[in-house]
Every structure is written in structure tokens, then in C-alpha cells.
Amino acid sequence: MKKTIYLSFTLSLLCFFNTQAQTxxxxxxxxxxxxxxxxxxxxxxxxxxxxQTVYSFDSVKGATPSGSMAQANNGKIYIVCQLGGDxxxxxxxxxxxxxxxxxxxxxxxxxxxxxxxxxxxIVKAANGKLYGIASYGGHRGNGTIYMIDPATxxxxxxxxxxxxxxxxxxxxxxxxxxxxxxxxxxxxxxPNGKGSFFSFDPATNTYTKxxxxxxxxxxxxxxxxxxxxxxxxxxVYSNPYADSTVMFNYxxxxxxxxxxxxxxxxxxxxxxxxxxxxxxxxxxxSGILRYNLNTGLVYFFAYLDANTGLTPTRNPSIxxxxxxxxxxxxxxxxxxxxxxxxxxxxxxxxxxxxxxxxTGEYPECxxxxxxxxVSSVVAPTASVIDMYPNxxxxxxxxxxxxxxxxxxxxxxVGQELMRGTTTGGTQAINIAALPKGLYFLNQxxxxxx
Length: 449
What we know:
This protein is mainly beta. It is about 0% helix and about 50% strand. The longest helix has 4 residues, at about 215-220.
């Protein structure tokens, strides 16, 4: 069946087209150290080499960056700091990747009843705006979901958590249905609360509590969510007293929440990442987990030690076929490391050992890939085309596309899998080599069966 759609023709991992040649780099941050002792931003080559410090925080613009960063459509990289700024109020900053200049755009807790102390990072939603969670503050004092509009850098609180949820320290997930998903519940802020799994619709600013966690687990440690190639959202929550981790999933197409039960004995230090072919990778206190969605089997894929880095704290990423993550201990100087693991062989590579004074220490960050080219950004132009069939097995066909426009096929975590140029008329795109799952042709999703 043919389906007429509007596709915005864009090019790059970050979904914007640029008239200049782009250079992608790996980015990360540290919670302390650097020239002034308040944390750093580091940048390396896509192959994991050549990491260097590009900015040291001085507390005036912010201190202790953590969580995910986000590159807006204007090309700037937005960063959340837990400390620093006016009266130590915590901040949101933006970094120009062409000059490495950092600008503070917002001080938390300087406006009555606004959010405060953002332990979570920031994500870009489908509407191009940026969203994060402040763990405290707001009208009820239990934290907020906030929004930054990159067009003006204006800040808005868009939801106040109540006492039954008690906010969150976990990054939001921007899912394929255009909504944001998250988990709530901070143990010492609300020790009797169960916590919950929720959605937030940026189109209507509607907050929906989808499920309440079991009291044995829900008031303890949650980890970040992912959307896997099967289209489902996966999350975990751990009980440190029982030394166990429970997994759940949510089908955005059927609105079905499923508690998958005990996954393994141990504590997850970060959530999972989709490795393709029905395999999820995660990080725990002891090593890297490999979870098979088809069989439900989980096992340790590789173990961590002081030399390779210890105590990962955030979700891993898969970039250029490698599993990448940060640790707050271990490495050459014992102050944390950025680690790359070959998912085919399990071989470790230390991309960077943090050394406090130069590169910083104790990274609580994701390893992310962003472009450095921000000038000459051209707004996407829409063309009416036909794309069919959907779902597809071997080929998808596009029709009526303006010739010479670029197209990109990506997976749910933004990895570029295919690219090409439209020819006009009817054009076949061979997707036979892709594993079964959900993908995007530019910004339009399709299913490979």
C-alpha cells in the first residue's frame, strides 16, 4: 500500500542539512577537575583517539556538568550543570563547537517556584525544543520538567511533579511517537514513594503516569530508558538491598506496559543501548551485560577492572560499531576513563584516562557524537513523495522526490546506516541487509520485517 508523506530532506547524524563539509567528534564531560576544578568538556575523534579538553568550567557559567548533552538545530551543544552560576543555582549552558565558546543561558532557582538542581541531562524532542528534569523546586517542591527553546534560549517549566512521584535524576527519552518518556522517584526525597513510568507530550504539555512501580523496587535506583529496534521502550530499576535488577518494557504502538521481572542478580549502573539484531548492551558494577530480546537470556559479555575503568554511571552508546561509556573510577590515574569495547570481540580500548588537572576527573556523562559545523545551516525543505511498502522486507520505494536531494536511513539511536541521493521518479532503496526493526528515512519511520 502506498503512503503519501511529507519528508524533510536533511543530512547528518543530528538531522540538519549543512552547506559545508561536516566534521563529527565524540564529546563527553567531567564532574570536577580541569583548570579551575569545576569540570570539563572533552572532545575526541570518531575513532576514539585524540581526546582533549576544549573547555574548563569556572563556576561562573556553571560547574559539575553531567548527563546527556543535546545539539540543537542551530548547531549549538546544550549542557546542564548541577552547580555553579549565580548564587550556586545550577545552570544551562550552550557551547559553540566551532569556537568552543560557552555561554550561560539560564540560572536555576533564581525565579520563584522554578525548577532547581538538575541532576539529569537534556534531550532534543521531535519539535526541535530541548527538555530536561530539575530534581527539586517547582510549585510543589518536587521538581519539574522544563523546556529550552533554542530559537530564543528562553526557559519554561512545563510540568510540576507531585509528592507521589518526587521527580527524577534520569534523562528523558525522546521516542519515535514524538512523546518524551521518563521514570520518577528519588529514594531519599520520597522514601515511601513507589516511583512511576510516565510520558510527556510536548504538543499539549500533557503528563501521563503510565505505571507505578512495585514498592520493593520502585523507590530505589532507576536507569535511563532506551527505545530498541523493535519499537518498544526498555527500562530497568534496581534494589541495592536485594542486589537485584528488574526490567520492564512499553509498546508505544499498543500502549502496553509489561513488567519483565528479574533480569539478573546485581545492580545496573546505567541503562541499555540497542546493539541491533535483537541484542541490548548494558553496564553494571562488574561489567558489560548482553541481553537477547528474542530469548530473554542475559550474560556478562566483558568484565571491568581498574585498568579498563570501574563504576560506569550512565548509559553506554554505540558509535561507529563500538560500545562506548564513561567510568568514574579506574583508568591510568584512577580518576575515571572513557572506554570503547568491540562488540564482536569484547576487546577494550581506553580512549581517555582522566587526570584531573588537564582533562578533569569523575565523568558522569554519555559519550555522544556531534558535528562541529554550525554556520550556513539551511532550513529543511519539504517535498511530497510516496514511500512504500511499509512494513517492507527487501526494498522501500520512493516516488515524486525532487532529484538531487540527500536521504539518510538511521536507527532509533540516531546511527546512520545508509545514505544516498534521490534520482526522481520511482527509486528503490535496498534494505535487505538491515535487521528487523524500526528505522527512519530522514525523519519518517518505517518497519523492516
